[in-house]
Amino acid sequence: MTTTLIVSISDVKYDVNKDLLSGVFGRYGTVADLRVSAPAAVPGQSNMLSVSAIIVFNTPQAAADAVKDLNGRQLFPGC
Questions:
Q1: Quick one: how far is CA 70 from the chain centroid?
Q2: Arithmetic mean of pLDDT, 35-64
Q3: 38, 55, 58, 76 - which has most CB atoms within 10 Å?
Q4: Largest alpha-carbon pair distance within the chain?
Q5: Residues 51 and 14: beta-carbon distance below 8 Å
Q6: Weakest mean pLDDT among 8-12, 23-27, 62-66
Q7: Pair 2, 63: CB distance under 8 Å
Q8: Rounded to an integer, what distance in angstroms lies between the CA atom of residue 3 and that of residue 67?
Q9: CB–CB of 53/21 below 8 Å?
């Protein structure tokens, strides 16, 4: 059974790509699939970009652990 997370990363200051997110989310379990959108402007926020990603984990526990640890946190300083 796989579990899918839909992730939104706002105020992007770095190149957020598939390799970077695989490294971040792969710490929580096997990432079966990962899709990343192109950066897009955040409405009403000048000079702010947002990226969305769909991350499919092999287990629900891996997804739950990632949400618990990463929700609302910065991936890197300023991102």
A1: 9
A2: 86
A3: 55
A4: 41
A5: no
A6: 8-12
A7: no
A8: 12
A9: yes
Number of Cβ within 10 Å of residue 78's Cβ equals 9
- pTM to 2 decimal places: 0.81
Cβ 10 vs Cβ 53: under 8 Å: no
d(CA 65, CA 57) in angstroms, rounded, equals 11
- Return the amino acid letter for 63: A
Torsion of CA 27, 32, 7, 42, to 10 degrees: 110
The pLDDT value recorded for residue 66 is: 92
Average pLDDT over residues 49-63: 90
pLDDT band of 38, cuts 50, 70, 90: confident
